[in-house]
Amino acid sequence: MKNHFICGLIACMVIFTACQKGDPLNPIKFEPGPGVAVAPVPHDSTYYVYPKGYTEENAFLKPLHLGVPAYLTPTKDIIDANFIPALKSTLVTAVSLTKSHPELLKTSAVNIINVTATSDMYVTFLLTKGGYKNSIAYYIFKTANPPKTTFGGSDHGAMDTITYIFPNTLSMKAGDKFKIGTLAAGMSIGFVLLYNSWNGSSIDTKGIKYYSQDTLNAEKPSLKRHSILFYDKSKDLYIVAFERASREFSDSDFCDEIFYVTSNKKNSIASANIALFNSGEN
């Protein structure tokens, strides 16, 4: 009996030690033996992850301190010469959107990417300003069932994973492109801005974050919006622009982080109630 007790104690210690070594972004998976009944794994946590096939160990090009991701597409988008100037004349530095384009701050103005046909989705970087080492990430959800909170996994009304796109926007160049993957109709994409989160070797997820979904941000209702959306019909692309600081104190110019979303299938993203953008190109 004593030997059985000692063996059991040792086994428990081994299991406990193994669990302690688990990567919090990739929890240890238990593989049951034949005939062992196991309850479904609960989705009770929200994890920040790198794209499939990547971890902190292989997600970056050298030198590491720049935070340039290794998982971008091999071919960059070519940005028209007048595209960014047109964008800067629409979203003017230090000019509040409440004065220049108040219609974009209305709750009726859509600021989420809603997929209407199965297609491959891409994100292309445009510009950043302010000198902050912000990170951009995304999450996917059913259009009809958006997240209601930012942590706790889908068991608690949150997203299960938030995936990094641009770890350090200061090191990104206009045209840098990332493939999200294939999404079906009825799915949506939300984005997260992690404020000044790149620390030179990894992304700090414990700091301030702002979400595409107004309801997930902390300010009072009239100031919850932190991202806006434009549709460039001539190019069939959707421009996402973020305000990086609390709306209680910021200039609310919404030009701190700007990127766009495209699809490999025309008209596969809903464009209703999204402001039109004219880049000057036919």
Shape: globular
Q: Low-confidence stretches at least 5 residues in length (pLDDT < 50)?
A: 1-39
Q: Distance between termini?
A: 84 Å
**Biggest beta sheet attributes:** 6 strands, mixed
Number of continuous helical runs: 3
Number of strands: 12
Q: Give the H and E element order.
A: HEHHEEEEEEEEEEE
Mean pLDDT: 88
Q: Which percent range fits the helix content? A: 10-25%
Radius of gyration: 21 Å
Strand content: 15-25%
Q: Name the structural class.
A: alpha+beta
The number of domains is: 1
Structure description:
It holds the Pfam family DUF4114. This is DUF4114 domain-containing protein. Residues 184-264 form the DUF4114 domain. InterPro entries: DUF4114. The chain is an alpha+beta fold. The chain has one domain. Helix content is 11%, strand content 24%. It has 3 helices and 12 strands; from the N terminus they run αβααβββββββββββ. The protein has helices at 2-20, 83-90, 97-100, and strands spanning 47-49, 113-114, 119-128, 135-142, 161-166, 177-183, 187-194, 209-211, 227-232, 237-242, 257-263, 275-276. Strands 1, 2, 4, 5, 7 and 8 form a 6-stranded mixed sheet that branches. Strands 6-3-11-10-9-12 form a 6-stranded mixed sheet, with no helix packed on it. Strand 9 and strand 10 (237-242) form a beta hairpin. The radius of gyration is 21 Å and the shape is globular. The N and C termini lie far apart (84 Å). Residues 1-39 have low confidence and may be disordered.
